[in-house]
Amino acid sequence: MPAVPSNAVPQPGRTDPSVIRNFCIIAHIDHGKSTLADRMLQLTGVVDERSARAQYLDRMDIERERGITIKSQAVRMPWRVGADNERGAAPGDYVLNMIDTPGHVDFTYEVSRSLEACEAAILLVDAAQGIEAQTLANLYLAMGADLHIIPVLNKIDLPSANPEKYAAELAGLVGCEPEDVLRVSAKTGLGVEELLDHVVAQTPPPVGRADAPARALIFDSVYDTYRGVVTYVRVVDGRLNHRDRIKMMSTNATHEMLEIGVISPEQVKAGELGVGEVGYLITGVKDVRQSRVGDTVTTQHGGATEMLGGYKHPNPMVYAGLYPIDGDQFGDLREALEKLQLNDAALTYEPETSGALGFGFRCGFLGLLHMEITRDRLEREFGLDLISTAPNVVYDVVMEDGTAHVVTNPSEFPEGKINEVREPVVRATILSPSDYIGTIMELCQTKRGALQGMDYLSEDRVEMRYVLPMGEIVFDFFDQLKSRTKGYASLDYERDGDQAADLVKVDILLQGEPVDAFSAIVHKDAAYGYGVMMAGKLKELIPRQQFEVPIQAAIGARVIARENIRAIRKDVLAKCYGGDISRKRKLLEKQKEGKKRMKMVGRVEVPQEAFVAALSTGGGGTEKAGKK
What we know:
The chain is an alpha+beta fold.
């Protein structure tokens, strides 16, 4: 391991931009991003052997449990290039700012923000698995951001690795020669030093005007209980000093800077940050709305007048209601969502009420895994007990009289004569071994998909492009795809407009009263199946009452499925030891009258456990989707 003399490390704020290299690592899940980041941290000496641990930059418990990266993490590393290197980098001391990014499709917004803070991207591909759909999606994002792409094959030490085959695939995508694709093993450290030298040689240094008014782009923020909002920035022009008063250009809010510094990988104080540097700011502000991702930071006096280009904000793909089990926690849930939104800018929410569940929030997510991770974080980090309703997408409904409605929740679905319902569709890319083409086509057809095209990446790997309704893929599409292809297929999707569809609202009625939490908007052909499934589920979950309870699934006034929960009968004949039959009949008639009266005035109480079980989306499904 090369020793890095502390006196040779360029200090923050006084660093010549020509020795700074900003890059990120993009890859599919399980292709070794976090392991490669670990090796880089060890090789550059910023993490000593004593405090080193696997997946060092994955700070959250959920990330470590599931083995997936959820949050991008920035880290500053010193690197000395020797005189005898073969990569063409000039000898000397350099500063590397690396951002480790998530690999799952639901966290693409994290990746897109990280790309804005970099000049190059390491495209990491598993030498035993090859290119996956999400790798392609992130590669196109990086190309769109005009970054220099460094293709790298990882896990070359595995017995099943096939570096020659996948190097040729990668070279064809990036537009280089197969021998230019670097080969490393992040686990053993083989080839990582050469990769860092290559990053120095190939990554263009940051460009900015040191004498211009200060401008820095906020690419992330976190909330610290003791220090308030911690803002992560990339300085584009000028310099920020820890004694400056700063201004957020979108809100014109001004703050006094209490601390400025770099992440290496823990926070290290600095006097200032110059052109091209990545670091953090602390102003002591507790209001989480003051520090927005994509905003431009400048100085209050003599500051810039023109903002930097922010980020294109993503549209939520999936909506679900989040309700506290204890109604008193509504205020805590609002506060928790505000703090979480600071850390996860792709999350959207607005208040809503439900007759069955009380007060809660309608939240927008980028996908099912994003929804599940958000709920997990709210419960763990803020100590809340939550019920989430079944996920659904946004529909546009046009009535016969020409009025239009935007429906984010089945309870908003309008009554009356409907002219047209439009549903969102996605453009899906599926990469799979060619053996499974038939079973994938069958699956997509059952989900109302339309094949747009098919290309062979190599003799035995095929890329299939489908247009699919968003509502069909948010539940179990990915699970079914994995089980039909023995885990080999990978999926990536992006929003692609909307289309007219024959959709209906299915209501679930208990004793003739609709329960809004169980309503769903489904395709007409799937309505009967949904009604039978929910009625059967609720029959198992709702406890028996003193009277018979009918559970009905209905479209408008037409009932399409029914189950009965039988009444608990008290044995009123127990005290009759013989005697005339008319005496027994009289007691039974009296009981019958009582049951009828109870049915008229009695209300069915649905226990919270029944809501949780009936509305659960099958946690295992999205957990597997985490390995997408």
